[in-house]
Amino acid sequence: MSLEGGEFPSLDVYSPLDHKSTQFAKFGAEPQFSPDGKWVAYVQAPEREIVVQPFPAPGPHVQVSNMRGSTQPRWSRDGRKLFFVQPDRKLMVVTFDPATSSASPPQVVAQTRITTAMFGWFQYAVAADGRFLINSFPSAASSPLTLITDWTARLKRP
To answer: What is the pLDDT of residues 123-149, one digit of tens each?
Structure first.
């Protein structure tokens, strides 16, 4: 996915029944379906804000982020929370209410050390129990790393 030259990706829905694509969002990236499949969260470009929209029917676009450049939307397993990363690398969360098509103000979950907030590459995952797996740079005070090579040969020795 390229954003060079002022071009932005669009989100299309492909139907295997009639082999046709229809545009869902003119400018968007990183779509994530809610667990019930009724909502899609994505990065709306060129503003690069996180929005939520009903799927497949048209409906209100609910902006959930409050900082330009936010990326990587991910739903909680129950579909009530939506996580995303701000450009300052803070992992944020909003509580989403599908009945009212509204979201709470964003709250900081954690300051991360992810490589960078960017399109097209998720750097964290949300586990079913609410824990996170975050791909990040080590801290400046990290422990040394020991690399053992040819370790399978050592297993064969008596």
So the answer is: 888 888 888 777 777 666 566 667 778
Distance set, CA 31 to CA 71, 88, 148 (Å) = 10, 21, 40
For every residue of 41-105, DSSP letters joined together read EEEETTTTEEEEEESSS----EE---STT-EEEEE-TTSSEEEEE-TT-EEEEEEEETTTTEEPP
Distance CA 117, CA 64 (A): 17
What is the extent of the structural domain holding 133? Answer: 4-156
What CATH number corresponds to the domain at position 62? 2.120.10.30
Query: Is the full-model pTM beyond 0.90?
Result: no
| Angle (CA) 107 104 34, round 5° | 95
